[in-house]
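Give me the 3D structure for Integral membrane protein.
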Amino acid sequence: MRNGLQNPALRLLPAAVPALVAPLAWAAWLGWDQQRDVHPDGSTTGPYEPWQVIGLVLTLLVPVCWAGFRRHPASAVLGTTAGLTAASWYDWSDDGSGLFAIGVGLVMIGSLAATGAVSGLITLAAQDPAGTGR
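Predicted structure for Integral membrane protein (134 residues):
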């Protein structure tokens, strides 16, 4: 008997879940904060606070680990990266300078590298060293 997802629609689930969770998490953690903070010395920071980005990363660990434990590391990587890239493009595309494309590229590269490392480690941890098939 074959292991894995039999239904073709279910085969898309390991990629679809991270791809849907990523933009929703982006909207929940980062989408509402659009203003830069101006400090007394005139410098600006933001618009995101570190706790917002940390919350986004921790939220995205759930679907990445979920797909990794099911031995679908490529789906976790591609789904999360696609979702974050689309969310950042949508959020930042109103920038008149066009420099948002560099930021979107950095989000894509960073999420690809981070989710690749995490899902690879999770997939290795989920392997059955005894070969019992569980």
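The chain is about 65% helix and 5% strand. Let me know if you want a second pass.
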